[in-house]
Pq loop repeat protein
Amino acid sequence: MPIFTTLISALAPIFLVLSPITSYTDQILSIHRTRTSAGFSLDIPLIMLTASILKIFYWPGARYDLSLLLQAVVMLAMQLVLLKVALDNRPGWRGELAGAPFQAGTKNAAGARQRLWGFWRWRSQRPYWEFLAGLVGLLALLHLLLRPTAASLYTQLIGYVGLAVEAVLPLPQMVANTRARSCKGFRVSVLANWLVGDAMKMSYFFTSAPGRVPWAFKACGIFQACCDAGLGVQWWVYGDGAEAGG
């Protein structure tokens, strides 16, 4: 058991920092190669970008494990690339970058009426980057005004919110798969990395020294692992065949 704990302590931080690269590189290349992001949920970059930004601002107050901070930074960079590639290759949206951001003029945009102001279903790419810049600016302002510490309510709040947001990562993809009755467009390599990452994270979180990994990481990690397992069941049931009704 001490040998296992030592191995996990040595290897898990490296795996955690590199996991955003191993998880999403294949998805990025697949979208770029096929010139379509059909079947891929744009909510995944939304969730991971929001969670990563919140976790980065959580660190100054909580001072949690450095490898988890580095993972958030690497994840932020990877998700920015993934979002850009996915937006550039939206089916039926290419070349419409100058359109009004809240205009519902296509089948894709019509679905945006189900969200307030068509949030994260904008025609133009600009509102996506403006939203992210606004989120960073707001958190930076709050950080300067509140000067968070480990015991502050603000620190605990953004920590739990950020980790809770990340924990629901699989849900939009699960909804998309259920509606299409297919996992087409979602790379099995991403799912495999998620499942392996869950196993590694759980081992690392619960074998680390007390206080090194806050309970927020552990609780949200357990929930996310359950959701990832559900996504694995979907892949087993639906596979990556053609979408139903096509």
Notes: Residues 95-113 have pLDDT under 50 and may be disordered. The CA atoms of residues 28 and 108 lie 21 Å apart. The chain has one domain: 1-25+38-92+121-238.
